[in-house]
Design a protein that fits this description.
single chain; four-stranded mixed sheet; Arc Repressor Mutant, subunit A
């Protein structure tokens, strides 16, 4: 069984989901793939300890602090490839960005392959079920384009600005994904 609660954030209402012990979801209202990693229904229950811990973590994050991802027990639901990509996302430092191609190269090494598709990586990044906490907003196109954020480009920009990322080389493409 899965449980849910909501958190009013500066980027909109966030729904948190857990299995009672581990956080399994964090989605902004209206986000692409909202809740799709959860099979079955989520029962609203606000007084679970993991929700209290996650809300404190988010309070600190939105206050400009840099809480460690490791402070929360996370169990995102997904296959081995997606888990690998999400693990790499957790390694991206606050205020920094990386590209889909960089993650693809890291995944190729980890999977002992010659190469890996940046598009496959993009699919895994886009399906990150614990957004904001697992920082998929820190991934940009190789040319600096702000594409591929399921929570929307405006949210991606707000999160990067909150973290003090250098926005000077980043841009919103005329056409692209998640615009």
């Amino acid at each position: 069984m899965y449980y849910s609660t909501t958190y009013p954030s500066p980027v909109g209402t966030i729904t948190l989901a857990c299995n009672g012990e581990h956080l399994v979801g964090s989605w902004k209202e209206g986000q692409k793939y909202y809740g799709n990693s959860i099979s079955g229904e989520m029962v609203e229950k606000n007084d679970i300890w993991i929700f209290k811990a996650a809300k404190k973590w988010l309070d600190r994050y939105f206050a400009g602090e840099r809480p460690a991802i490791s402070e929360l027990p996370l169990t995102p639901v997904g296959g081995e490839f997606r888990q690998g990509v999400w693990g790499i996302l957790c390694e991206i430092p606050y205020g920094e960005t990386t590209t889909y191609g960089d993650i693809a190269r890291k995944m190729a090494v980890r999977m002992n392959k010659e190469r890996m598709s940046a598009q496959a990586v993009g699919g895994a990044v886009g399906h990150n079920p614990i957004s904001v906490i697992i920082p998929c907003h820190r991934v940009v196109g190789s040319d600096g384009s702000l594409t591929g954020y399921a929570g929307g480009i405006a949210t991606k920009i707000k999160l990067l600005e909150l973290e003090g990322a250098d926005m000077s080389r980043l841009f919103i493409p005329a056409r692209g994904t998640s615009l």
